[in-house]
Design goal:
Shape: globular
GO molecular function: nucleic acid binding
CATH class of the domain at 211-232 and 249-457: Alpha Beta
InterPro entries: RNaseH_sf, Tc1-like_DDE_dom
Pfam family, one: DDE_3
Protein name: Tc1-like transposase DDE domain-containing protein
Organism: Salpingoeca rosetta (strain ATCC 50818 / BSB-021)
Strand content: 5-15%
Order of helices and strands: HHHHHHHHEEEEHEHHHEHHH
Distance between the termini: 55 Å
CATH architecture of the domain at 211-232 and 249-457: 2-Layer Sandwich
Structural class: alpha/beta
């Protein structure tokens, strides 16, 4: 039996599927047992990964044909038996063709909508535009680390340097002719621009808010484990061979949420009273034990699972009431892009609705409806309408109270000062940890850490984030100046076509700090990954 498993699972070196190899003692001629079929599926998946992932017209026709066959079988069975047989068309096509559920489902939707089968005239099954290199998350991190090393050494980096880095690391080939090199440089410029778009919008809005002398409210959620220690920095005797107590697992955790507010720029610093200074808003602090079953739901791996839209909306009411009681108006409320921060009103149409409900929703909103409209077309209209007119619940709540919500850009936790506050608070708790620390001790120390959090500490955290904000703003404004010069010289690249201009303007790269994992990103490495003075 061991020899048989080795022969089937290992596959062949000539690219032939392992299950078609001649096999002795087969129970049924021409059949595949479970082991052989699993081996075949692995082989097929590997072949598709090694070959082009482009979904061709023929491949899409196969998906549509299989679904059409089973849909016809349902009709035939209903005529014979008088009642239709239940079929899961997408699942059947997925199992027969070994394609993903999304691909099979989307192929039939496209066919239903257009009564034709086609693919986009570009790479990728989802119609991704052709690029000179794959814009993956791994590449973004690789570039970010390289830029960080150059910053530490004090090197100035421009787009041509990034092109050289991509060529030397195999992301792009080495170019010998000037035209190809110029085209590749434009592709790099477009890539760098795409990386900074969301960040630049946030930075300009924040700078505008500071110029308007508005107060900023920063909010966030976090947690701390029972056995949290910031770092293993204690002295020890290297000659001591006695066994130390075994490192304990993370254990239970406390989740907490709060908001901090910047100082009032309308009041001169010398005249500021306590209410005008930067500080934690204690009325907004909520600490609870994560992991206790609530409504039958146990602790999730990601601590965000302990929060939901209903809880956050109640907490948002507390924040707005606190600001109103303190007489604080027209603030910018900064929060991240967590799903429960952006929940829509309960009566917002959903893709899971039946066609009749979608027709009713379109009619109620004054959207055109036709008898020939498919469910997919109705949802497309509703989705566009929702994106243009429906605001998240907390955004509407804030605007009704005279405030504005701003979303932080991904990968820029250093622009969110409350992350630095969390690191300080958790550091205070973690440094008091020993092997006798109880979960009750952690709660008591956490309460003390928040109670002793001074306005000076909060102000320092905000000042650090503001300094980073100013630095990035100077960088993006310098990029604008370079673009203006390029336009004046007639060499500006609009990203729509590749001309043969060899005179390429050097563009400064927006130099990102090495990505720091905020405590919201992962449950896996939070215990060892935070500093007291930085996020």
């Amino acid at each position: 039996m061991a020899q048989r498993r080795s022969a089937t699972a290992a596959g062949s070196t000539d690219g032939t599927p392992p299950c078609v190899k001649k096999k002795e003692g087969r129970l049924y001629a021409g059949s595949l047992d479970n082991e052989e079929y699993d081996a075949f599926k692995k082989w097929l998946k590997k072949q598709r990964k090694e070959n082009s992932r482009t979904l061709t017209v023929d491949a899409k026709l196969d998906i549509v044909a299989v679904q059409a066959y089973f849909r016809h079988e349902k009709f035939v069975h209903a005529n014979k038996s008088g009642r239709p047989k239940q079929y899961r068309f997408t699942a059947l096509a997925k199992n027969v063709l070994q394609r993903s559920t999304d691909v099979c489902q989307q192929a039939w939707k496209d066919y239903e909508r257009a009564q034709a089968v086609s693919v986009a005239d570009n790479d990728g099954p989802r119609g991704t535009k052709t690029t000179k290199f794959k814009r993956t998350e791994a590449l973004r991190v690789k570039l970010q680390n390289w830029l960080y090393e150059r910053t530490v050494k004090g090197n100035r980096t421009v787009a041509k340097d990034v092109l050289g880095f991509f060529c030397s690391s195999g992301v792009l080939p080495m170019y010998s002719d000037p035209t190809s090199k110029a085209n590749a440089l434009r592709a790099v410029q477009r890539y760098l621009e795409s990386l900074g778009y969301e960040r630049d919008a946030y930075i300009t809005q924040m700078i505008k808010a500071l110029q308007q002398r508005r107060r900023i409210v920063y909010l966030n959620e976090s947690y701390i484990h029972h056995h949290y220690r910031p770092h293993d920095e204690s002295l020890y005797d290297p000659g001591d061979n006695r066994l130390l107590p075994k490192q304990k697992h993370k254990g239970r955790r406390f989740c907490f949420i709060a908001a901090i507010i910047s100082s009032d720029p309308a009041v001169p610093e010398a005249e500021r009273s306590e209410e005008h200074r930067a500080q934690l808003l204690p009325e907004t602090l909520d600490i609870f034990e994560g992991g206790k079953k609530q409504s039958g739901k146990a602790q999730t791996k990601d601590y965000h699972g302990m929060f939901d839209s209903a809880y956050f909306e109640r907490w948002m009411q507390t924040l707005l009431a606190t600001l109103d009681a303190r007489g604080i108006k027209n603030t910018i409320i900064v929060m991240d892009n967590a799903k429960y921060h952006k929940s829509l009103p309960a009566d917002t149409p959903k893709q899971s609705w039946k066609k009749a409900a979608m027709v009713e929703a379109c009619t109620a909103r004054g959207l055109p409806v036709s008898d020939t409209d498919t469910r997919a077309l109705l949802w497309a209209r509703l989705r566009e309408h929702i994106a243009q007119t429906v605001k998240p619940v907390v955004v509407q709540m804030a605007e009704d109270a005279g405030h504005e919500v701003l979303w932080t850009p991904p990968h820029y936790s250093d622009l969110q000062p409350i992350e630095i506050v969390w690191a300080n608070v958790k550091g205070d708790v973690g440094r008091q940890y020993n092997y006798d620390t109880t979960f009750k001790d952690v709660r008591q120390r956490l309460d003390e850490a928040f109670a002793t959090l001074t306005p000076k500490t909060v102000e320092g955290c905000i000042a650090k984030a503001d300094a980073r904000l100013d630095e990035l703003y100077r960088q993006i404004t310098s990029l604008d100046e370079v673009d203006e010069e390029a336009i004046d010289d007639g060499v500006f690249d609009d990203g729509q076509r590749d001309d043969d201009d060899e005179n390429m303007e050097e563009v400064d790269v927006v130099n990102e700090d090495k990505d720091k994992d905020s405590d919201e990103d992962s449950d896996e490495d939070d215990d060892e990954g935070e500093h007291e003075d930085e996020d």
